[in-house]
Amino acid sequence: MKHSVRRLAVAACLLAGSQALYADVVVKIGFAGPLTGPIAHVGKDEQFGTQLALDDANARGVTLGGQKVRFELLAEDDQADPRTATTVAQRLADAGVKGVVGHVTSGASIPASRIYEQSGIPAITPSSTSPKLTQQKFKTTYRVIANDLQQGAAMARFATEVLKAKRIAVIDDRTAYGQGLADALVDSLKKLGTPPVGREFTNDKATDFAAILTKLKAAQPDAIFYGGMDAQGAPLLKQMKQLGITARYLGGDGACTAEMIKIAGAAMSSDVYCTQAGIPMDKMPGGKDFNERFKKRFGVPVQLYAPYSYDAATALIEAMKAANSAEPAKYLPQLQKVSFKGVTGNVAFDASGDSREGGVTLYQFANGKWEARP
């Protein structure tokens, strides 16, 4: 009897060993963004886009170093807060992630990028547009979207050449994203010979803009630009209307959301415009199919940058496949050579880690939604 038990135990060990031999190797991919708070809808959108990319890769099957791998997402909430972002970045590094999609906001990406550089972990942001992010020249920092310099220049040209605005006021929320975008706009306006008639500041937690708007109203602007997210942009637009300010409302990609329309409500009108890094989903090569699969998988429509987070995750996987390894030190050099047709278009990076083909689209509110202008 003892011998039978021993033989069974040995057989069980051998079986377990053979199963372990053929089990998928788990490769953890990190995601970081605001999953709670006023812009959680943007963070969840990008988290879902990342998850869909990993699901697709797992369904196709990826083999690295002779072993089949299974990608798992480890998501962390940075609350769009710079200090929390560094904590989250260290947590992901300690958890052994092999790459990161994120962060969502520039204010979080910039401090977190130093942690990833020190840990040697590649991080690709789908939506952080501050030029400062890649100007640090970190080898692990990449983005799949146009930067603020391109957005600021596009809005400045549109405001002055198409809208014929001559008195433009500027407000920003003092975040790396909001201020960076506003600075880029101001620089472009000055080059076009139309310096702002006013420049004011708020913060990304504010709800009352009466003092700022009253001050700007006296300058009689024909357009007001806000650099920041929809959580403040929508109330600001409402209060412009309440104060009888008839200036056109201009915003960046933080305002180009369905949530902006929802929060602003009746204050939305045809004199509300925004720029968005990238191209409209219906113009993306894989946009229609992606949108349908996204809604089926998660039960919600795409908010903003989910297609870009999908392409960011795919870029990490493509580099791993090229290196035949998920180890960052081995596949990082391949990120510089990555080139593929993603959902958003051709994905490739320049020497700084910026997108080689980052476009900018101008939107106007019309027919109850954001419509791309030709």
UniProtKB/TrEMBL annotation:
Pfam families, sorted: Peripla_BP_6 (PF13458)
Alphabetic keyword roster: Amino-acid transport, Signal, Transport
UniProt superkingdom: Bacteria
CDD domains, per database record: PBP1_ABC_LIVBP-like
Signal peptide interval: 1-23
InterPro entries: Leu-bd (IPR028081), Leu_Ile_Val-bd (IPR000709), Peripla_BP_I (IPR028082)
Heme listed as a keyword: no
Domain Leucine-binding protein: 27-366
SUPFAM superfamilies named in the record: Periplasmic binding protein-like I
An example Gene Ontology biological process: amino acid transport
Entry's family note: Belongs to the leucine-binding protein family.
Name of the molecule in the record: Branched-chain amino acid ABC transporter substrate-binding protein
